[in-house]
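Hi V.,

You were right to ask for the full record rather than a summary. Here it is.
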Amino acid sequence: MATHKVAERTGLPLGVKIRTYRREDLRGMLWVFHEAVHRSCAGAYSPEQLAAWAPETVDEEAWARRFAGSQTRVAVSAHGEVVGFANLEGAGYLDCLYVAPEAQGRGVGSALCAALETLASGDIEVRASLVARPFFEGRGYRVLREVHPVRAGLALPAFDMRLAR
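Predicted structure:
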């Protein structure tokens, strides 16, 4: 019964916990990244753009350094599976926020975002995809400008956003 009340209060599905990144989380995080991009963003980006954004092979060590060098939080299911992750670089740049498609819409992204927002020392900025823009707007972030970062030679429409605090 107490577990149920905690889940209601945090908004997370039963058994999901947010914790600090561990190196052994990396493979699960990379799977979440790939699936979130390829499945959740499929209607907003072309297959070529999705492949440029989240290729089939990645430099795991570069990702490990990225997460170890930032404030990274991981959402883990009761079974120990990574279902989402986010990281904050410096004092206020939300670098990544990805949730497994099966866990989306259940409060995991909001809990991850809230955990990082409490760590920031001032305004928070994020580069949001077409799909993520409404999520961030719902949290009070405002669009600063539309951008088109290039990955593997392809432009990916996105938005630089800021949460003023």
